[in-house]
Automatic annotation (TrEMBL):
It comes from Dekkera bruxellensis. HAMAP family: Guanylate_kinase. Keywords: ATP-binding, Kinase, Nucleotide-binding, Transferase. SMART domains: GuKc (SM00072). Pfam families: Guanylate_kin. Its EC number is 2.7.4.8. This is Guanylate kinase. Residues 3-185 form the Guanylate kinase-like domain.
Length: 189
């Protein structure tokens, strides 16, 4: 049986994608991400309900009014968002445990739903090491490193309030991956 949804959060650059990629590779059929809703037009080959739930702007706005979203945002003229229903569908339809990779606002929002999720925070060994990883990844400008470090401080303050069920410090990758698996498999067997 699929387990409760698992929310993975933590500062940008802390290693969430690295850890999750490894988990999905090791267990290709056990976990899934929810399908996002978007108002952008499908690109060739994209399937409705698989790549995205393609909706109109009016439909999207109604969903916002209904409080259907865990999080939503607007990028370059299009709306994107994750609904509670899409998360439920991963367990009910796909029979997989849904993993959500979201930020602090998303965590707060999931806590207000009936998803009964479990919360894992991936912390960097230090803010100095986080800066090195963000710079080392080669995907960020100086400005975006600064912004991410400021956001990281807010995320870490939030984690100190005890909002998560488990905090994994991603210092040694092997050790962090073992701890992550231990948390995840504690309830998804
Ligand atoms: N334990 C580790 N030790 C050293 N480097 C690491 C470790 N884990 C991840 N990294 C490196 O740190 C960088 C950031 O990792 P990653 O992209 O997985 O972060 P993220 O938390 O998913 O970030 P974002 O939220 O921006 O997607 C990558 O270059 C990755 O290879």
């Amino acid at each position: 049986m699929p387990g409760r949804p698992i929310v993975v959060s933590g500062p940008s650059g802390t290693g969430k994608s690295t850890l999750l990629k490894r988990l999905f590779k090791e267990y290709p059929n056990k976990f899934g991400f929810s399908v996002s809703n978007t108002t952008r037009k499908p690109r060739p080959g994209e399937k409705d309900g698989v790549d995205y739930n393609f909706v109109t702007v009016d439909q999207f706005k109604s969903l916002i009014e209904e409080g259907a979203f865990i999080e939503w945002a607007q990028f370059s003229g299009n709306y994107y968002g994750t609904t509670v229903a899409a998360v439920k569908k991963v367990a009910d339809g796909l029979k997989r445990t849904c993993i959500l990779d979201i930020d602090m606002q998303g965590v707060k929002s999931v806590k207000k739903t009936d998803l009964n999720a479990r919360f894992l925070f991936v912390a960097p060994p230090s803010l100095d090491e986080l800066r090195k990883r963000l710079e080392g990844r080669g995907t960020e400008t100086d400005d975006s490193v600064k912004q991410r470090l400021a956001a990281a401080k807010r995320e870490m303050d939030f984690a100190e309030t005890g909002a998560h069920d488990k905090i994994v410090v991603n210092d040694d990758l092997e050790k962090a991956y073992k701890e992550l698996k231990k948390f995840i498999f504690a309830e998804t067997v």
